Amino acid sequence: MHVLILNQTFHPDVAATAQHMWDLARHLESAGHRVTAITSRAVYGTSEQFDAAFERIGNIEIHRVKQTGFGKAHTAGRLCDFFSYYVSSFIKMQSLPAPDVILALTSPPMIALLGVVQKRWRLLNEGKRIALVNHVMDLYPDAAEAMGVLTEKSLLTRITRRLTRLTFDHCDALIALGHDMRDRIVKHYGDQHRIEVVQPWADKHEITPQPRLLNPLREQLGLGDVFTAVYSGNLGQAHDVQTLIGAIDRTRNDPTIRWCFTGGGKGMNRVKDWANTNHPANLTFLPYQPREALSDLLNLADIHLVSQLPAFTGIVVPSKLFGILASGRPSVFVGPAETEVARILVENDCGSVIAPGDVDGLLNVVRRLRDDASERTRLGTNARRALTDVYDCAISCEKIANLLSSVLKQDCQDV
What we know:
Structural class: alpha/beta
Low-confidence stretches: none
Shape: globular
Number of domains: 2
Helix content: 40-55%
């Protein structure tokens, strides 16, 4: 089976989708499949470019196409980056041999439309049937509505919603990141699609629990035995930033609690701006960490913070949760109870769910876990068990591999 992965980021980029698709590509390759990735030459979140336009690693081919480099600072520039990637990807797809299956993600939004066009083009011009699977990492235009970029009844919203429905209708299957996302797809785009729920994942061999006081980052930062709450990864428009800032503000002079934020995004910039004005004594910032340092970073925490705004229920699923589970640390989730993250924490008894805006509730949980090491250990043990039993990289990648094989067989039967 020849699988084409279509996504704006890929190995060795630090973006979550880049790392997940690299995991999947290696899993497919180990099973004897051929993998081609068409990705951007731009380095995620920077103005830098990868040197190599083409790279082969084993039986994995990586084609990095050109795009503009305006970044995320302005909407117009970001749209230009998206459009240039669409054009470059389409040209590259036309120059490559037709795959058996296209796995299209959602970065940039609606890139799966290129898969629809490619299916039709190859069938009409070469007689080649291609299966198409849309791995819905973010749901559009729903995400743009939640961010306030689009309004529900605007012409652009109606057009993009119809395009999304059209894309879904031409896909052989969809992959949703959670049950809440699956339910939203069914509600807004119909229930005629084949939808498989495959949550993001982490590698149980790559991220393992470590004794807290032996953590090299803890020693490097001079934290000693201080209780540490960590937020790692993207902190963007889908996340509840204000509740986190409220908790930090209320404990800014508490030497028994250290808050550590690592990563990027507009929300991270808000926290930094607040810190520059208010100068809390117990807040530390770290840059994005490379993948090889992720286990140490996640083990730095006594507890991890995860957040999500209500408007993004069923639209996104924070992938950071699964690395946290692998590290054997409890999570404190600030977000709606009906989200996928909340469901996983409650069902596996590995963390707490706090309503958005409930600063008192967040602080009560943080202080309770600060004072009860045995409870932290119990929740962390449950978290690790959930990862190894359900959300490990090998388990999730095999689910996707089986789905790709299934839709390919079905496509052949339909000939």
